[in-house]
Design goal:
Layout: H1 12-40, H2 49-64, H3 71-76
Length: about 100
């Protein structure tokens, strides 16, 4: 997601710089996701970091137009729920019992 699968250079210093920059950006992304979760009063695991990463473009466009000034408020706003920042709840996984003596009740 963050582009670390491709190295920009072959030098050891360039690789270290790319790894550290990616790690630093990921830490900022996690912090932003945690702040959005706090704003929405949701647990952190309900927030999609990938969709926050993709939504940063939309925030920057809205910021340039003067429609948004704070990323946390932008991602938590009801009108921006279509960005998919909050993960949908899934049904619990039911275990399939394949034993030969199982009799459903």
């Amino acid at each position: 997601m963050l582009g670390l699968s491709y190295l920009w250079t072959g030098s050891i210093n360039g690789v270290k710089l790319q790894v550290w920059a990616t790690w630093l950006f990921y830490a900022v992304l996690v912090d932003l996701g945690d702040a959005v979760a706090d704003e929405l009063s949701l647990p952190f695991d309900r927030i999609s970091l990938e969709m926050i990463y993709r939504g940063l473009y939309h925030f920057s466009v809205a910021n340039d137009k003067g429609n948004a000034d704070h990323p946390i408020k932008y991602f938590a706003a009801k009108e921006n729920q279509d960005l998919g920042v909050v993960k949908a709840l899934r049904k619990p996984v039911t275990k399939l019992n394949l034993s030969p003596f199982f009799a459903p009740t």
